[in-house]
Protein 1
Amino acid sequence: MVGTVRTMKPDDVASAMELSIAANWNQTPEDWYRIMQLSPGGCRCIEDGGKIVASASLLPFGMQLAWIGMVLTRPEYRRQGLARRLMEDAIATAERSSIRALKLDATDEGRPLYESLGFVVEEVVERWGRDSGEFLAAQEKPDLGGDDSSKVCAALLAQDRAAFGVDRGELLEALSAAGRCNASENGYALSRPGRVARYVGPCVANSEEEARRLVAAHLDVEARDHCHWYWDLLPANPGAVRVATRFGFTCRRSLWRMRRGESIKNNDAMVYAIAGFELG
């Protein structure tokens, strides 16, 4: 029997992974655990017969914004209102916490549900990819300049706040620990393992050339493994599109970035890669 909405536990992750694999998502078990650590009680689920059949996550960034992600339902349980129950639960939790805005990245299939709950479209977000073995013949070796860091410092956190709109320092620290970080005084780029492809992002920089240089360092180090890559970007920043194209990436799919509540002032021109559909 389908149960009520409850908080997901670490022991549930193996079952939850079955949902993301069925949807062909790139998340790993570590991605689920990370959200649980950053937002205790933020991963919610519905189970049936001891297995997770639907999920959603809520990741607050202070009281100004929270990000909704991991909205998944097993194929055989769809059209039963489970995603709506989880979304209503997330909205109620945010309202109890006086969080002023909610955001998420929606597929075409999910958009009508979110619109019915008061979300409005802000912009398009795109997934770009590069398959193993697809390298530009002219891909240059990165000029690291000798001053890159493996940590996002306080000055870069201020730059990230201007780009994203709110402080997400804890998330950036966790993502840095999970993968690689290249940072300079003008920006940073992170990458981490995924289930089917290595993921580049987030990347925030004060110029297209700096973003290109920082991302090139990740692609060069991992090139020996000939791995697949995903890169999620905002096409509102044409510089991000140019950099991704230069490195042989192509657009694979489009989603809708949606908001419920107050507008958040941010700067897309500084965002060359987002952190992930489930993270913002």
Protein 2
Amino acid sequence: MTTIATSFSELEEQICQRFDSLSKRLRQVGRYLLDNQERVAFDTVAVIAEQADVPPSTLIRFARAFGFSGFNEMKTLFRAALVEGTSNYNERRRLFIELEEEPLDPESPPDILHRFAKANADALEQLVSLVNDEDLKRAVTILNQADTIHILAAGRSFNVGVYLAYALRHLGRKALLIDGLGGMFEEQVSMISAKDAVVAISFSPYASQTKSSIESISKIGCQLISLTDSAVSPLSGPSDVCFVIKEASVEGFRSQSATLCVTQTLTVSLAALSDKQD
């Protein structure tokens, strides 16, 4: 018999543990719920079903699969978690929009800048509450103890990987970028040893090269740090430390401010640790 979760963290853990055994439709619901905690807390069942691209009955089936009498009972966990973890930034954001006296022209460059800047500011503020302090410390320790740091980032995440490799090399660390130049992803991955560390960066829809490389890396026995967007992403399972990052998105254009913030935090923290040890 399924133990009914009494908190969002318990529910999140249950969804992650059972994710692969769920039907395709229920996995679709699970991914949406974990990736949109705030929206689930406020939206109606009809809106959630529309956004998750499933019929409302599927939401009810999902809730019952985890022991709840209905979806609204499950939804109370999302609301409670939001209230307990909020620093009132959500309320401030809504109030700001409501009190804006002169709506800006949505076509104008100043308005586009305004929306990107605000969305990124919100994402960075949320980042502080999403990132676990112990995960940060453990990630820095892993990087510090690694013989070589390999960075896996393809597609839209590539520039973040390039920056991290650049920053680590300026610290005097041996950092190699797995870029697949000449189609040599497999050859570059084969150079990783159990004494190394890998930092993998990928966001939905997840670069195919990254997914296939992660499968190989997980068999090597090295330490893996991942930066991704979901607790059920292909990177999270094999990771020793996983940072789930919610990036800002404006009209389909996803930012990278929060991801870069995490990489800068890791780099500067590693530098500080090195100074203490010298």
